[in-house]
Write a structure and sequence with these properties.
alpha+beta, globular, GTP Cyclohydrolase I, domain 2, single chain
Length: about 140
Amino acid sequence: MVPFFQMKKPKSSTDGLTLLGQSDAVYPSSPDTAKLETFENAYPERGYTVRFACPEFTSLCPMTGQPDFADILIEYVPSERCVESKSLKLYLFSYRNHGAFAEAIVNRILDDIVGACAPRKATVRGRFTPRGGIGIDVTAEFPEP
């Protein structure tokens, strides 16, 4: 066994990250203006899962303008790039005043994650709080099963 101090140090690059460490972050007004930032994966040869949970996600119903609440779970296996969590937080926050159906939201989040970091695979699940007595649970996967 290799002693800890002799273990391979992971690569780390924060070049190009503009949101991390900024206390004066501007909240994007919609997903169209939000930016998902990525950084170099220190372990691209290893298959491991990154899991983000957003239990306080909010958006608007496109028909009524009423707020919708959801628990969003994002899981992905990175390839060369990883999603930076603060940019993801701001991206998800951008849905707060955005009108869209649950199905469109979950699929858009998956498309944007895949577009940002080109993972080996990814899953986005949205568990929307019941309104009118019906909850909606949407799962989208890349690549498609």
